[in-house]
Automatic annotation (TrEMBL):
This is Lipoprotein-releasing system permease protein. The keyword Cytoplasm does not apply. It comes from the Bacteria. InterPro entries: ABC3_permease_C, Lipoprotein-release_system. Pfam families: FtsX. It comes from Reichenbachiella faecimaris. Belongs to the ABC-4 integral membrane protein family. LolC/E subfamily. It is found in: Cell membrane.
Amino acid sequence: MNLPLFISKRYFFSKKKKNFINIIAIISMLVVSIGTAALIIVLSVFNGMEGLLRSIYGTFDAPLQVLPSEGKSFIYTTDLKDKIISIDGILDITEVIEDNALIRYSDAQMIVKIKGVSDNFIAQGRMENAIRQGELKFQDGNTSYAIIGRGIQFNLGVSLRNDFLALQFFYPKNTKPGTLDPYKHYNRANIMPGGVFALEQQYDDNYVFVPLAFTEKLFDYKDKRTSLELMVDPDKDLLTIQAGLAEQLGRDFMVLNSDQQHADLYKVLKIEKLFVFIIFSMIVGIASINIFFSLSMLVIEKKPDISSLFAMGASKKLIRKIFLMEGAIIAFIGAGSGLVLGFSISWLQQTYGLVSMGVASSVTQAYPVEIIGTDFLFTAFTIIFITFVASIQPAIMASRQGIQRV
């Protein structure tokens, strides 16, 4: 029989009397439980947000993107194309010209990110589920069309039913000093709005998709491209393809996978998650002061019992173990019940979406939640460690009581 555990259980679960010390211990256990549950829920929400962003970008962004290592554009040659196609697993190449431009519609105007893409972009089906109004098309006969974000449509008041009002784009030209004609300082091109997409706020408020030829004319790019988006065979290993392509293209180009294309965003999410974990751990640490006081008061109350145990030959190590076990009971019950509570709430939200985000969203109506096992492992370890540390000093104090004859 484990004597320290037996005695500590008798102290904690005693039914003979429920004094003030027991009440403090129960409160301490409840605080640990609530803090643990809150930490699990918040971490699961962060996991859900990261997973939601990955799903959004994963269905829209190309698996691989080729960018110039220096500058914002490069010459797209047949030799470069052949190098890319030669890599096993590359299925398709989308040429991209992307830059900022001024857009005007009626009396409203704003700066947007205009992205010109080659004709195969639509065939890849990367925006099929994002179209909310109009059609997903860049060309109909001799008329070119733009696909605009829902935020841009709202800010400019764009109407797809108005066949007489086009989107006007303006882009600065590299003119010689001393040019007095203001029209020679910028390029201007018009295009009709053909559809509205709703994907994610960053895209919805800033992006306009147009045919590649339109941006070649507007930006005077000709054979230059700002990036290449590559579709790959899903049955092939993406990292292997990426490594082979990077070796083939050399130092003049960067090859980014879908995570690396949004590395800063994912990094911010991980940092926020880390700080939330630290803050909630500190809150539980402050709450564990109750454990320290309850055990300290228990030591004072049990002085006669401690003296009796010493008289019967108990060692200081045994006395320390008794009160460490008392703290461990509070820690394990509090952390265990908190983990179960946090898992239950997270699972209900993940399964049934009980809590709504409170805003109309084309992506999800409920707060996204994703349960990850490592969160439970680190949370349990941290909470138990904090409560164990809070139990050390009262246990040492108990072992120093000395032997008192009763």
